[in-house]
Amino acid sequence: MNMVQNVVKMYARDKWGWFILPWVILLSSFFVNLFIAAFLPVDEQIVTGGLISIFIYMMVIGIVSLSQTFPFALGLSVRRRDFFLGSMLMISLLSAAISVILCVLSYIEGSVIEGWGVQLSFFHLPYVSDGNVLAQFVIFFSCMISLYMTGFLCASVHRRYGRNGMYVFSIVAVLVMTVILYIIKYLGWWSAIFDFLGDHSAVQFAVMLLPLAICLSFASYLLLRRATV
Question: Ramachandran region of residue 116, left (φ > 0), alpha (ψ -120 to 50) or beta?
Fold first, then answer.
């Protein structure tokens, strides 16, 4: 357990990358949208997708963090298993903390300072914020974990198989998606898919993402077990 904690501390030393930069990106987007909303001559609610920036950053840091820390950690005699568990603990704690803050900001925007006085919906979004605070927390947390694990898996593939392996992985992923889309179109499943999407809430989809995140993490661990430094 001490080695797992040491991995978390190793990550935490990069305060800029883990704790500061995500909020710099998000708040920059927020203030730009707030400035624009303040000068738009509209009376209806302005819905923006700027909140997604912090989630995309989670995927980016999933890629970058592994590339930067994996060789260093193994050089300090950290076991691959401990490195993996420490990485999962770090992103879980960070995602939980960010999700709590986002829930607070959503509440402020939706109930305290409604639309920040300019009818702006940045943190309190339709559909996403339809449930209670626990539902919103699950949505934020699940999306962050899933995107981080997507980036972490991509970095694990690169670490295990190198650049050529990453090319093959990308090509296969594109081909699989193309075949799936073709099958959906050929069988006429689009209407059924749209009905399925309309029948479920955002928190239900968020819960569905959690098993996917677990599968991605397991695949990453298998790749890291045989990855070279």
Answer: left
- Amino acid identity of 15? K
The two tokens of residue 121 are: 């919906």
Neighbouring-strand partners of residue 47: 121
8-state DSSP, 13: T
- Residues 152/84, Cβ–Cβ less than 8 Å: no
Taking the model in full, what pTM does it have? 0.91
Q: C-alpha dihedral over 35, 36, 42, 44, to 10 degrees?
A: -80
Contact (CB, 8 A) for 50 and 33: yes
Question: Greater confidence, 136 or 47?
Answer: 136
Look at residue 208 and tell me whether its pLDDT is greater than 90.
yes
Question: Up-side HSE of residue 217: CA atoms within 13 Å toward CB?
Answer: 20
Query: Which 8-state DSSP code applies to residue 123?
Result: S
pLDDT surpasses 80 at 44:
no
164: which residues sit within 8 A by CB, 6+ positions away? none
Residues whose CB falls within 8 Å of the CB of residue 115, separated by 6 or more in sequence, listed in order:
45, 46, 109, 121
